[in-house]
Amino acid sequence: MDWILIAQAAYLLLIFFVILRVIFDTRSSTKALAYILFIIFVPVVGMIFYFSFGINYRKRKLYTKKLQIDEPLRLKIRNKMNMQAEAISNSGLVPEKHQTLAEFIRRAGSSPLTANNKVKLLINGEEKFVELLTALEKAKSHIHLEYYIYENDQTGNEIAEILIKKAKEGLEVRFMYDDFGSHGLGKLFVEKLQKAGVQTAPFYKIKWYALANRINYRNHRKIVIIDGTIGFVGGINMSDKYRNDLNAKNHLYWRDTHLMIQGQAASYLQYLFVCDWNFCSSTLLAYNKNYFPDVLHADTIEKEVVQIAASGPDSSQPLIFYSLLEAISSAKKSIYITSPYFIPGESLMDALIIAIQSGLDVKVLIPGISDSKMVNAAASAYYTELLEYGAKIYQYNKGFVHAKTMVIDDDLAIIGSANMDYRSFDLNFEVNAMVYSKNIASQLTAAFEDDLKYTIQIDKESWLNRPKHIHLWEKVVRLLSPFL
Fold first, then answer.
1. Contact present, 235 and 420 (Cβ < 8 Å)
2. How far apart are CA 296 and CA 115, in angstroms?
């Protein structure tokens, strides 16, 4: 009996210290309370879950090594680009209402404004891969790829053959993939690339002794940089399912969005790639003019203003989350959001509700067909609240909408890899392109309006009058949204 009492006392003491750690280590009081209740009411399992998924690794500097390697390169990039960025800020190219947003991203993310850019909006994989294949074929110096999902299928092999060809021609070719997202890639596929001279590196390789944490922190970016002057960024991974021209007859139609950027903004995408590469590869890359060439002459390129917002466990704050919050706050007329996983959290919900009640046109496009019942249930609870205040929510029914975009008024377009959920804001390495452009905003608005043709608008009364047990289930699942 003495041993039982001692064990019980030890367990209670352990719970006490774990709860103290939760309180000190978790910024969100709602999230902290959820962890504490889980630890108390689900013995042992609750603590294992917290240590696997709940520790704030941004605060605890899991990526200290990465930060130390990144800093010298960041300073060189900042010094190279900041003088130009200041001139852009004073030029009037960025609308006055968005200047606070641009300055925040510059200060908090060390990401300068860039003006000498040609930007092409790419709708679906059919458009992206045509442009990507063409650009890869024309590469002269180097090719850098970074993908969350890269599959060993027709698309993956088509790109791989070009990488192999270019490596044999003497170009520097580097291929980085998330070890969790690209788990089906296969050892033989990677070895084939390596034998041809392509340098490869899995981001944060999953090992059994660190399984949970390494699965939890994922590199969700989709980046390609060619010769330091052409960049691709957005939501489209390297897989056949993102290409409707390759889909089998019964395959789900896939709706997604990507950007091709030619010009100065490619330098910051290159910076992100080099930093990620230096973290996960044994062969470090240093600052090199071939990787960061001078921008093309202003007369030879369109003057679109682009700023790259990136964040992850290695950043001091959730930059993408804050940038979306500020973007919504800057809106004067309209906010059009497309997101496959819409779990915005309290702050973004408050910003959207304020926008709605201020008379702005707020429209949210979400999947009618979801690939996660739990995420869909949690998101539905947010739909209920927005509908009560007058938001217009549309369910896309042509297929699965995977695009992560936002259009603010008629002069700011946001396209990237970040979903509107806790995972993208707090756990994943993500990247968004902020395009301060009436031209691109107009194109993205047109794409949004075209998507609305294939949607059903959620009827407020019908939605709110659904059975009580459905609302209860959604509210219960919403409590788990920080873990989804």
1. no
2. 11
Q: Looking at 222, 258, 363, 460, which residue is catalytic?
A: 222
Residue 142 annotated to the active site? no
| Residue 409 among the catalytic residues | yes
- Whether residue 448 is predicted with pLDDT greater than 90 in this model: the reply is yes
* Global pTM value: 0.88
Kind plus residue range of the DSSP H or E element containing 476: helix 468-479
The pLDDT tens digits of the residues spanning 242-252 come to 999 876 555 78
* Whether the Cβ atoms of residue 215 and residue 206 lie closer than 8 Å to each other: yes
363 is catalytic: no
In 3D, which of 396, 311, 401, 325 has the Cα closest to residue 108? 311
Q: How are strands ordered across the β-sheet holding 305-311?
A: 305-311, 430-436, 412-416, 405-408, 334-338, 361-367, 392-396, 455-457
Catalytic residue among 404, 421, 426, 451: 404
Asked if 350 is an active-site residue, the reply is no
Average pLDDT of the segment spanning 90-98: 82
Distance, in Å, from the CA atom of 51 to the CA atom of 450, rounded to the nearest integer, reads 45
Q: Can you say whether the dihedral through the CA atoms of 128, 129, 132, 134 is positive or negative? A: negative
